[in-house]
Amino acid sequence: MSEKRVVLVTGGSSGIGRATARLLAQGGFTVFGTSRNPSSVEPMPDVEMLPLDVRSDESVKTLLEKTGRLDILVNNAGYVLRGAIEEPTLEEVKALFETNLFGVVRMIKGLLPIMRKQGSGHIINISSGMGMVPSPFMGYYAASKFALEGCTEALRHEVKPLNIQVSLVEPGFIKTSVWQNMKEASGRISDYDPSRNRALEVRHQFEEKALDPIVVAEVILDIIEGKSPRLRHAVGSDVARLSRMRRFLPEAIFEKGMRRTLHLDS
User: What are the backbone dihedrals phi and psi of residue 3, each rounded to the nearest 5 degrees, phi first?
Assistant: First the structure.
């Protein structure tokens, strides 16, 4: 019997991470999930929750001693910072990137040596539809995902000769706690409120139609089991449609359509 493949899912306590960990465990993988406070996480069958703060070098080092072999790394941990570009403090922006980008970098730098030694592995980074098409008042969240996409695409080229695969998952609106737990920029400026409020009302309408996290988990499973998975995997018709429009429409027409859709102009 072949050895079970070992999977590590960061941010495994809720939402996409939890759905992914549960589905992969049901599929016969050896699954480790991570959380900053695993004792507070509701147990999942055949999923071992480990303590991890992706912002901490020491936390990642401790994790390595536990997992040993690693076949699949799913970088899912992250959060949302909402506000106009000039509203958050620089410290708030740095904190966002510390988790959404540098947290992924820490995981890759810590765990990629294991995959290189094995001569195999698969890294799956959870991006966002905003990693392709930014939304106003979500600019820094989009920027963190744009950066993640660039790093991931470069990494894919670098490790392909080493028999290591790299993929991106780009979900649209998903029913997770990330939107309820998002952080607001501290320096709110009232000049932005009219267009901000209209845009948020439209976003709420999309959120009401959001997909269940299991849809993203199923895409991740398909990626893992695929023979030659491509780089980008959009999840949700909204993301796929925006991606096509961004690619094929003239810039001015696309911009006008985005502003009209989000009711940015009174």
Answer: -70, 140
Catalytic residue among 140, 145, 167, 195: 145
Q: Domain 6-261 is of which CATH architecture?
A: 3-Layer(aba) Sandwich (3.40)
Known catalytic membership, residue 160 = no
Task: Reply yes or no on whether 145 is catalytic.
Answer: yes
Do residues 25 and 44 make contact, with C-beta atoms less than 8 angstroms apart? yes
State how far the alpha carbon of 137 is from the alpha carbons of 49, 114, 143, 241, in Å: 34, 39, 12, 21
At 1 the pLDDT is: 38
Q: Note the pLDDT tens digit of each residue in 203-217.
A: 888 888 899 999 999
Pick the catalytic residue from 35, 128, 140, 141: 141
Q: Which of 127, 135, 144, 167 is catalytic?
A: 127
As a whole-number percent, the residues of the chain with pLDDT over 70 amount to 97
Q: Is 228 a catalytic residue?
A: no
Model confidence band, residue 67 (pLDDT cutoffs 50, 70, 90) = low
The predicted-structure confidence for 86-115, as pLDDT tens digits, reads as follows: 999 999 999 999 999 999 999 999 999 999
Contact at 8 Å (CB) between 50 and 44?
no
Sheet holding 47-51, edge to edge: 47-51, 30-35, 6-9, 72-75, 121-126, 164-171, 232-235
